Amino acid sequence: MRDDGIDMGGTAARRPGEPWRELNDVGCGYLSVYFSEPLARWPIREITRPADNKSDPNIETGTYGLFSTCEPGMRNRIVHDGAATVFFLTTRKKHQGRVISGYYHLGWYTEGTQGAVNRDYALAADTVRFIDPILATDLPEPLATLCSAPFRTMKPIDALAVASLRSLCDERPDRTKEYLGEVTRIESFARARSGYAYPSWAREGGFTWDDADDYYQTDAELSKVPNSSKSRKWRCRVCGYLIKSGALLKKCPLCKQMATLAPEEEVA
Prior knowledge:
The protein is of the alpha+beta class and 268 residues long. The chain has helices spanning 72-81, 143-148, 159-170, 176-194, 264-267, and strands at 21-22, 29-33, 63-64, 85-91, 98-111, 121-135, 154-157, 233-236, 242-244, 261-263. It comes from Microbacterium horticulturae.
């Protein structure tokens, strides 16, 4: 059991209070593809991705979309459709193909920094389980075809596929602690090289539940903000700071204000 109350080897015992609400579960789910860290021993998210440091899947808090703006469409559909299980896939080696690394069963949701107007819902898991990676093509059919067939970032799956994949993951040893150890190690490596665990965020440390309050939606007058920038440049509406990032950040790296970044081409 971790200090924040989450048993990362099974059920996330920490039950979030307000503003979190229970998420309906109709048995369906999603396959979600993420970039994995080339310097890590386990396929954690790509923390050192140049100008685009990744925070999801945020195994250390058991959340998705709380700290990042990744996959707003998927998060929106999960909330509205009750597709409460997300299986994570990534590619570790060229020509190897995708592997399945683990899953979340989601128990709660809330509006994120950008608000529902931007389909920004944060999701919290009641179960977190990561395993020795399984090559997608080694899965039994029809799961092998389902998981290895080309798709870019995410794919909805039905209740039968969810139950089958979860059974395969649950029968394997839980490696979540090893994944967490790699997150800490890579953050330390990045900090030793640049002074920041997440240089593109100007963030010195990792993520904990102590950070969550800053990322909840508080401004009822939020406008719609594109989740991508053609120039990969973003301007802060408050301090005017211009940053380069592969994805929209929820917090300005300079003034630390929330939901103030917009594509440079729209602000200019």
